[in-house]
Amino acid sequence: xxxxxxxxxxxxxxxxxxxxxxFAPSPTGPLHFGSLIAALASYCDARAAGxxxxxxxxxxxxxxxxxxxxxxxxxVLERYGFEWDGAIVRQSDRTILYAQALQTLxxxxxxxxxxxTRRELSSAPIGIAGERVYPGTCRNGLPAxxxxxxxxxxxxxxxxxxxxxxxxxxxxQQQDLARDVGDFVVKRSDGLFAYQxxxxxxxxxxxxxxxxxxxDLLASTPRQVFLQRLLxxxxxxYLHVPVAVNAAGEKLSKQTRAPPLPITPLPALLAAWRFLDxxxxxxxxxGVAEFWNFAHASWQVPRLxxxxxxPAPATSSARV
Length: 320
Hints:
The protein is α/β, with parallel strands linked by helices. It has helices at 6-14, 33-48, 69-79, 95-107, 177-180, 195-205, 221-230, 265-275, 288-298, and strands at residues 20-23, 52-57, 89-90, 111-114, 153-156, 162-165, 173-176, 184-187, 210-214, 237-241, 243-245, 309-311. The chain is built from 9 helices and 12 strands. It is elongated, with a radius of gyration of 20 Å.
């Protein structure tokens, strides 16, 4: 499989416009301390660069949406002093764009139908991304034993591709997609578009130049770079900050019952700032606006801990 050369990638990099970042929560529940880490890092990185910061609601998986979650997320961000540029974008309004990208891949003969069930793949080895490596069962057509199955996913062929992804904080990432991931899903068997395709289309269509997010997404970045090259769209610059984990070593998330952010913003903002090892303010800010004035002027990427995860402070579980 021929991908664009390093030279063409460098030209795309050099042609990037003014910094444009984004925060993209999923409306599956309230924001928590782990969400705040990603929001604060992306917001400060954008404002310190004099750039734009967009808010995108990643609700492409409509089955996981919780009623009222989006409104709650927006209200919390506003109370915590985040100010985004432009209108809020929702993935649920953009499925035509994902369909067009899928059609492009289809016309290039880069995707195929797959009828494998989760149970049938449960014995496949687990790759470095923590997911089952697809064994290629349907790569050359559906097996005869799958006859009559109508729930078909779409997978993209990866072949012999080793991708290197430079991160502004973490070490250089190298991934052999065929060995470590296998052909991966770009449209699910239930008809929903996969995150990997949606995020690539969204970032390209919105002109995102810099992606700042949690290091739990670091292992999926090579797949996104791969799709960016197939679709001939620019690759953003990436910065993956440490994710907060609980006492059991689990990432703070809705699945691990991370508590919602407290009503009073300032203590949580200061805790997130300390978590990212940023220079402390000379004195405690008197309010949220004063905190953000200091944070935007004091943000330093070299101070970020170059690790994928860190224990969350005990105060992150307190509700104020």
